């Protein structure tokens, strides 16, 4: 086994994590939505290209400290990477399952202000409102593009808050996407908790102050990337992310993750420069991908998704030759 904790195998750790996690609410509805979305995309009338579905994860997971949660440990991620990438994947012809942290950036809404409802609209009288002139183009674009993606069956959005919800939903999505074989892609941009308090060890009520120390034991979250590759969706094309603040260790850490979790690519990025350039680490090469500054409004995700969808297409072709 590639990862053991004491004498426990990874499978046993994963099982223990899922068995002790608070059950996901609406599992049945989520599974139904997923099945409908995937079936629609893989119906016989659609060509091979249209069957490509990517699961984009976005935003940070929380690790609650109390069962009736008031406090939690959070992971940094605004969701900008995931939301922007979703837009480019849709443009590239993918259907996208967008697994996102509630309240994080959303596809098609990046050019809107922080509080769009009150900033983009104004009252005309006591009963009516209108879009403010300055935002009319941005609001129209966001609504039209979002509507087209969702009603056209190209975009399915599923929210999470905690590490428990995230991993249970990722497992559901991956097992639902398994039928797509190599046409499935995972683009794992979410910042996922490395440590958590197991549900059974968590206090029920709000932790009381009164001591100088907060005494909570965090344990390592099982490395579910290996489960994804081995069991949940073994033929899918998998891209994970590695974030560091120390550029000296970034590429080594990304290369280690590539090998350890058998990823097809790891996108290495550094906190302060993550919107300017990233390095796509694969077993064959390391490719620096930069934002094209000569084009206004261009993002690093534009060339990144172009590169990854080309690599994915080559992977699908290779897989079909092997059958
Ligand atoms: O969400 P965002 O645009 O603010 O940041 C994106 C990111 C840095 C969270 C992402 O590119 C990333 O590296 N995710 C994986 C983080 C990790 O190593 O756990």
TrEMBL record:
DNA/pantothenate metabolism flavoprotein C-terminal domain ranges (all copies): 172-282
Keywords noted in UniProt: Coenzyme A biosynthesis
Family from the record: Belongs to the PPC synthetase family.
Species: Lupinus angustifolius
GO molecular-function terms, A-Z: phosphopantothenate--cysteine ligase activity
A Pfam family matched in the record: DFP
InterPro entries: CoaB-like_sf (IPR035929), DNA/pantothenate-metab_flavo_C (IPR007085)
One BP annotation, GO: coenzyme A biosynthetic process
Name of the protein in question: DNA/pantothenate metabolism flavoprotein C-terminal domain-containing protein
Top-level lineage group: Eukaryota
Coiled coil: none
SUPFAM superfamilies: CoaB-like
Claim: RNA-binding is one of the keywords in the record: no
Pathway: Cofactor biosynthesis; coenzyme A biosynthesis; CoA from (R)-pantothenate: step 2/5
């Amino acid at each position: 086994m590639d990862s053991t904790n004491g004498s426990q195998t990874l499978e046993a750790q994963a099982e223990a994590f899922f068995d002790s996690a608070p059950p996901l609410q609406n599992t049945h509805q989520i599974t139904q939505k997923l099945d409908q979305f995937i079936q629609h995309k893989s119906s016989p009338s659609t060509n091979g290209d249209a069957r490509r579905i990517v699961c984009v994860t976005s935003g940070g997971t929380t690790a609650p400290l109390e069962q009736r949660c008031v406090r939690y440990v959070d992971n940094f991620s605004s969701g900008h990477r995931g939301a922007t990438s979703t837009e480019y994947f849709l443009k590239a012809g993918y259907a996208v399952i967008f697994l996102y942290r509630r309240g994080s950036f959303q596809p098609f809404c990046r050019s809107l202000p922080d509080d769009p409802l009150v900033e983009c609209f104004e009252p005309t009288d006591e009963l009516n409102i209108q879009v403010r002139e300055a935002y009319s183009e941005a609001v129209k674009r966001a609504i039209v593009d979002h509507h087209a993606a969702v009603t056209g069956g190209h975009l399915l959005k599923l929210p999470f808050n905690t590490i428990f919800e995230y991993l249970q939903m990722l497992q559901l999505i991956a097992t639902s996407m398994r039928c797509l074989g190599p046409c499935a892609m995972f683009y794992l941009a979410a910042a996922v908790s490395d440590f958590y308090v197991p549900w059974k060890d968590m206090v029920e009520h709000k932790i009381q102050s009164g001591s100088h120390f907060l005494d909570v034991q965090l344990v390592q979250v099982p490395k579910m990337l290996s489960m994804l590759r081995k069991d949940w969706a073994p033929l899918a094309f998998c891209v994970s992310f590695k974030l560091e603040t120390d550029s000296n260790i970034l590429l080594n850490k990304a290369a280690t993750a590539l090998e350890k979790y058998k990823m097809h690519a790891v996108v290495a990025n550094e906190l302060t420069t993550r919107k300017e350039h990233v390095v796509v680490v694969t077993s064959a090469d390391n490719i620096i991908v930069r934002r094209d500054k000569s084009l206004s409004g261009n993002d690093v995700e534009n060339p990144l998704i172009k590169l990854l969808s080309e690599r994915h297409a080559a992977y699908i072709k290779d897989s079909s030759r092997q059958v």
